[in-house]
Amino acid sequence: QVRNEKTDEKRMRAYARIIGADEQDFRAALDEVPTMSLEQFTQVAQALFLIANQLSELAYQKILQERIILKQQKTEKALTKSEIKYRQIYDNLVDVYYEASLDGIILEISPSIEKHSQYKRKDLVGRSLYDLYTNPLERDKLVGILLERGSVADYEINLSDLDGTQHICSMNIQLIRDAQDIPVKIAGIFRDVTERKQAEAALQES
Hints:
By secondary structure, the chain is α+β, with helices and mostly antiparallel strands. It has helices at 9-19, 23-31, 38-91, 113-116, 121-124, 136-149, 194-205; strands at residues 3-4, 35-36, 96-101, 106-109, 151-160, 166-177, 183-192.
């Protein structure tokens, strides 16, 4: 507490009478309160205001930072759950998902390929699709159709297994383009329909 150094004594005594205090005691009590000029008080008040404002800003920034961190943690947790769910689905696909460059290099292929062929996934990533097509020209034809249409559905091709066994596969794939609309790769799924085709052929012969 401080008081104005220019406070009038008569006014102080009058105030004491108003509040019912002893004038001498009131005066003695006020004498113990440090005096300060109005100019000094204004400077101190401004300084205190600035300090309070800075502390408030620091507190706000801390709260904001904590909220951002909490939001990031929630996002990361959600992404982790999503990634686990995606991985579980990806690892348990019945069909085979794959991605390949336009020139035929396998960029990605799902583990389900090991259920349908003698190949191991790790041995196929980075390998050329031309090594797997029974007739490599079929691949060139498929790419040409994709460049023209953008996608194909139930498109049949013939692939060779590790031991040379032939597989008839039904393809559902599309052409992937970048932000500049330039074709960059092919992605989609295929299913081995060899047994179905053989069964259909047997019914036609009977």
